[in-house]
Amino acid sequence: MNRKEEVVKIILQANDFVSVETIAKHCKTSTKTIRNDLVFLEPLIEQHHVRLVRKPGVGVYLEGDFFDKQQLLNTLKQPSPHSTYTPEQRRQHLLQSLLLNKSSQRMKDLELDYYVSRATIHADIATLNESLKAFQCEIVFDKTHGLQLMGDETHQRQVMAHFGPLEPLVEYVMDGSQKSKQIFIERFNDVLNLDFNEIEMIVNEAQHQLGYTFSTEASLNLIVHIAIAIQRAKQGFDVTLSDDLFSALSSQKEYDIAKVIAQRIERHFDVTLSSSETIYLCLHFLGAKRIKELQLKQLSISSDTQALEDTITRFIRKVQSSMGLFLENDAALFNSLLLHLKPTINRLMYGLSLQNPLYEEIKFNYSSIYSAVEQHSHLFNEVYHIHIPPNEIAYLVLHFAAAKERNVTMIRTLVMCASGLGTSQLIVSKLKRTFNNLQIVDVIASFDVSYYKEKDIDLIISTIPLESSIKTIVISPLLSDYDISMIKHSLVDVKNQPLPGMRFLPHHVWIDVDVSSKEELLHLMAEQLLQEGYVNEDYLQSILNREQLGPTLISSTLAIPHGEAKHVNQSVTLWVRLAQPMIWAMNESIQQLMLIASTQEDEAIHIQLMHNLMNHLEDESWEHHNLMITDSLSLAQKLNDDLCHLQTNKE
Fold first, then answer.
1. How many domains does the chain have?
2. Residue 576 backbone zone (phi > 0: left; psi -120 to 50: alpha; other: beta)
């Protein structure tokens, strides 16, 4: 800009017409360059109420008030706030300008604003259009009308949310600190120029009326949506929604609340929201992620809750098989998926998907779980005719990651320390920080150990030598790195300790059973347990009810049917090997099955049994070896060794 400033100075100082040749000679450049500079400068000159007068054969002259001319010169002396932008910042600012201004952008204005060439602006547009493909939008350049962002209004709003204040959302969601929130609010105010706190209060009121609590991320997304709706409505833009969507949502309880919230927005921000905007707001309520539902019984989001519950059960069964874990008895997983998927399905059915600021981190840190969830997400397409995109898959991954953490077998640990409270607390703190599978039952002095029996404790960690039938690890009072390494190696043996009270009895291991149907087999097994007093007469029906929720296959040849704990008098496990493969469900055959009848008290032991089973199923030869055994006693011994970790006498 130094040369352009010099050009203006020369013209102003002349106080009369000055030729282009004179200006070029003074600036030591060509007349063509000076003419291009004058074309570039003319919009800026006009902005300062000064007119560039051209007189052929004579030269150019600046006509206007002295003060305006001085302001023009001062502007040229000051670097533009946009001239120091990085290419990424420049592109982001350009896109926001197209979104926030109803009128199109002239190429000349952009060149002047960013102090870059036209070729650079065209390159920026090409880069931006690559990012906009995912939103079905495009920046189009027309010589007459300049630059315009083309695309459906709902898609343009998604662009605005994604490229607007969403960027600092990652830090806000990750750490929830006041500093991160302030960064987000500053970006929000800068981009959208609205009162964040007022919109936040509106969203809080919506939560109160809806009867459920949004996640932090969902609240922020909703605040951004409302702000964008206000901005676009003030500029005269409106969303276009189908009649079917009006019919589907106008009868929802959420629509009545959306109307009340829309009226408050109109009053406070002096804007008129159309009925389409109210429906769109209702859709965002239905699609918001929740962390708690205060009135779950009154909530009617899914038109077919039973279908959703059945689909989730099938989904968990498929994913658990891919993960090599047994998760279908995890009530927390089922409930969290039910709570999450209700609004998710509503979003996707109506073409509204959330941006996930943690997507890349989730996919990187939980890559194997992501693959398992992605592989089986088609189940929801089969029932609801929706496609779950990668952003939404990443949210589902977090639920299974949490379930995997819960699936860790807890080792009941007694910490024994004779060195005082300070030392014992230091040991416990280090153990909890280092090991996620140690359940610290108590911290005691040496003389208290007699109160604990082998059935209550799996491991003793002690600062003094001790004679005990329970596995004991002796450590130094300060729990050194060597001690931690020793504990890690010892925990492998503790994990393989016998499951208390768990064994396969030979008469509960059936070989080459010949039945004509799945129902006949389940009836035989339930009748056997009923006669022996293990279960009550309602147990068979509870098994059949469980099978209706979704098949219990966990491998290509093995099923694990089970009933409700309230119908079990005493825990027991049956193993059956069929004479011939049998169709179990979904045209998949089995040749072996394990029936688990577990009381509520023994549930943790049976979860460990399932964990051991899943570990062995990773070895494809394990099931094959079971099929080769010819008698019940030998098969029972193998199952006790492999699954219950009982070293039976094989002589």
1. 6
2. beta
